[in-house]
Amino acid sequence: MKDIYMDHAATTPMDKQVVSAMNPVFEDIFGNPSSVHSFGRKARKYLDEARRTMAKSIHANEKEIIITSGGTEADNLALIGTAIANKDRGRHIITTVQEHHATLHTAEHLEKQGFQVTYLPVDENGLISVDDLKNALTDETILVSIMYVNNETGMIQPIQEIGNLLKDYQKTYFHTDAVQAYGLLDIDVRENGIDMLTVSSHKINGPKGIGFLYAANDVKIDALQFGGEQERKRRPGTENVAGAVGFQKAVELVINNKTERNISYQGFKDQFISHLSNNGINFTINGDEKKAIASIVNVSFPGTNVESLLTNFDLDGIAASSGSACTAGSIEPSHVLSAMYGENDERTTNSIRFSFGIFNTTENIEEAAKRVVKIVKRLSA
Amino acid sequence: MSSNKDIRVVVGMSGGVDSSVAALLLKEQGYDVVGIFMKNWDDTDENGVCTATDDYDDVVRVCNQLDIPYFAVNFEKQYWDKVFTYFLDEYKAGRTPNPDVMCNKEIKFKAFLEHATSLGADYLATGHYAQVRNTDGEYEMLRGVDDNKDQTYFLNQLTEDVLAKVMFPLGHMNKKEVREIAMEHDLVTATKKDSTGICFIGERNFKEFLSEYLPAQPGLMKTLTGVEKGKHDGLMYYTIGQRQGLGIGGSGDPWFVVGKNLEKNVLYVEQGFDNEKLYSDGLIASDVNWIKNLRENSITCTAKFRYRQKDSAVTVHKLDDNQVHVEFHEKQRAITPGQAVVFYDGEVCLGGGTIDEVIKDETYLDYVG
Lengths: 381, 369
Hints:
The complex is a heterodimer.
Chain A: E1 4-5, H1 16-28, H2 38-57, E2 65-68, H3 71-85, E3 92-96, H4 101-112, E4 116-120, H5 130-136, E5 141-145, H6 159-166, E6 173-177, E7 196-200, E8 211-215, H7 241-256, H8 258-278, E9 284-285, E10 296-300, H9 306-315, E11 318-319, E12 326-327, E13 330-331, H10 335-341, E14 351-355, H11 362-380
Parallel strand pairs in A: 1-11, 3-4, 3-5, 5-6, 6-7
Antiparallel strand pairs in A: 2-8, 7-8, 9-10, 10-14, 12-13
Chain B: E1 8-13, H1 17-28, E2 32-39, H2 51-66, E3 70-74, H3 76-92, H4 99-118, E4 123-125, E5 130-135, E6 138-143, H5 160-163, E7 166-167, H6 175-184, H7 206-213, E8 219-222, E9 228-232, E10 255-261, E11 266-271, E12 279-290, E13 298-304, E14 312-320, E15 323-333, E16 340-345, E17 348-360, E18 363-364
Parallel strand pairs in B: 1-2, 1-4, 2-3, 4-7, 8-11
Antiparallel strand pairs in B: 5-6, 6-17, 8-9, 10-11, 12-15, 12-17, 13-14, 13-16, 14-15, 16-17, 17-18
Helix pairs in contact in B: 1-2, 1-6, 3-4
């Protein structure tokens, strides 16, 4: 029995072209990009090119790209870095209840440091309301951090509207965690009114351990770590050149293939869902399908529970997830679904996130759907 | 004939050495082994640290060493409803409960067994020191070979149906061998300390723990003839036969708890380890489980009234389906309501029940509580 991967929102396999782009760097390019000799300059050249590609992909300037170890570090830097640097202008931050823990736990940390944080609610469809945001803004608000696409439900948030609204609030920075959006949605930081944006490499078939934070030129941001001059002092430490080159290749691939990928992933999703519908199992989709990203679907299976489902799926070679955090390996009710439906709704404990990507084919989606139907029928009997 | 690789065995793994070795032995025998960690208690402290995380981490490491899949399952709600609520209710009633017996009955060999079955398991295995004997499709539970570790006392509520689906890979071994096997295979849990005490209390102070859930009502300590000997901190903190923590000074023999009066909130104490008030000659037990249905109305067998106690000869008379009168052949010390009485025929564990009443000279000893 072949294992089938349907958890691309957790991480993705590296594209072969990414591996091919990185291998020569591993083999030949070992210089420290900060060194003032030929070895260093050679490495620096690779790094600069990678950075330029990253910047262009979101219509930013290359000096606005801070390369980090990944999405979590970028979110931490965006929130803590601007909160500390701008605390004299205000101490109020707005985010949402359904953020990734990289944002939520950072916001909680800032609360302990004396910042006031407003957590915007979401509606039954997993969407935040721009009116709620408008009402929450005060003279003290220095930062709004709202994810572009929710990682559990795939719901695309009204980022353009938020950006438009915040253009009138000069003192408030707008940060968005675009980890699940990047690669499938067109992002233009100027047009969208985005001041900071988080991207992670391993979610787009690049290597793990690298990501970036876009921070517009005029954003006042303090570093969280100290050392050399790298990343214009905002993120010191010798750079991960091979990672940057792999990330660059992954960026090029998503930029060039955005339309095809959307069509392909949406196709897998539709195929999967219609197989479930056609085989008479009881399920509902969490969130508003029309506003979901192509790669993610979150399905509730009444009469089952997440732990039995995921364990059975895995034993039958299906890799999916609940999308939510685990403590001691056991799955806690999803904070995102709890925010949408209330804590006691059974959908918080019987929902599975399936996420599609380059591992998938029409054949393995069909096979996966068959196995899922068989298991769900057995468990909900 | 199906070979072992077609037989799926779910192993309940705690992150301790026993369940680690249980999984290892099954894997060596070629079974399709799946390790599952049970999370029964939310022990997240004020810093957000949860000791279950460390234990689960050890499960992950061991399973990776053995190359078996691992998962976790959360039974916090079931544990709270079925075990912890019972535990508090018993203390409220002035008794000394045995949550491990209840956990085995309601969680490990019920909720967890159902979960394992839903995963296509043919058997559930644990690291308990006990043995299952299958004689032509009839299942019995035998004591573990290691006298010092035998855990049948805690497993007395298991039924034959359940035993048919259970494996105890360590039952024929002693603890020393188990540690040695873990060392030989360099398991990360090889030298891990055995857990002590009640699982959800762990290393914490028992008194403090209990006081978080039940209000302590201090009262008087008296002899059975009414002589005041001091104050107690709350009846729930004491058990029959207890010597420590009474704080009665003076000369002569040490003092012991002999009983409780819940209505008057009085703790009864008497002097001397062998004080006759601590002794009884029979008991009434309820919630009695016979692993194999008992046909006779009375039998002579042996019994344990506490874990790790030597067996004593008794005659058991059935009162109704789940109540028995147990007659001791020799008087017994410190029989405690709430604890389990477990019956044996040689190496075979017959079942057991919960001690409700203590009897002496054909009278219930009301002072015991």
